[in-house]
Amino acid sequence: MSRATGTRFDVPDVDAFTRTYWDAAAEGTLLLRHCDACGRDHHYPREFCPHCWSEDVRWRPASGWASLYTWSVVHRNDLPPFGARTPYVAAVVDLAEGPRMMTEIVECEEAGLRVGLDLEVRFREAGDGEGAVVVPVFRPVATGA
């Protein structure tokens, strides 16, 4: 925790609006916000559509498929608990539904990373105790299975 603010760096803030998103993640479902006015999905969750500004938006399950847009392999991070997890892959992925999402790539060696790599969502617990949440991460799609 940050001594100044009491903030945990590895656990997202959960509020009344995003509770649905985090509860679904805990059950293994990635949700997006869908705008019924313009038909587009968006992420991160907002109460209005960032494309047409409509408030006619609702939660909708995502397919869980994505492709790697960009990434950075983090070899040093002095913020707890990240230092103990280095190296890790911070990434931006293109979700099959269209939006881009910041995430982490897991179960992949650095040499296996490439733009356009097909990915599937997985879920990992972050934090501990009452403040723990389940967060979406992505791994390469298994081939030849």
Largest sheet: 5 strands, antiparallel
Strand order of the largest sheet: 6-5-4-7-8
**Which spans have pLDDT < 50 for at least 5 consecutive residues?**
1-6
Distance between the termini: 42 Å
The number of distinct helices, counting runs of at least 4 residues, comes to 1
The pLDDT mean sits at 89
Morphology: globular
| Helix-strand category | mainly beta
Rounded radius of gyration (Å) = 16 Å
Q: H/E order of the elements?
A: HEEEEEEEE
Explain what you see.
There is one protein chain. This protein is mainly beta. The protein is 6% helix and 37% strand. It has a five-stranded antiparallel sheet, covered by helices on one side. Strands 2-1-3 form a three-stranded antiparallel sheet. The N and C termini lie far apart (42 Å). The model is unreliable at 1-6 (pLDDT under 50).
Keywords for this entry:
5-stranded antiparallel beta sheet, 8 strands, 145 residues, disordered N terminus
Short characterization:
This protein is mainly beta and 145 residues long. It has one helix at residues 19-26, and strands at 31-35, 41-42, 57-61, 65-74, 88-95, 100-105, 118-126, 133-140. The relative contact order is 0.19.
Question: How would you summarize the topology of this molecule?
Answer:
Blueprint: H1 19-26, E1 31-35, E2 41-42, E3 57-61, E4 65-74, E5 88-95, E6 100-105, E7 118-126, E8 133-140
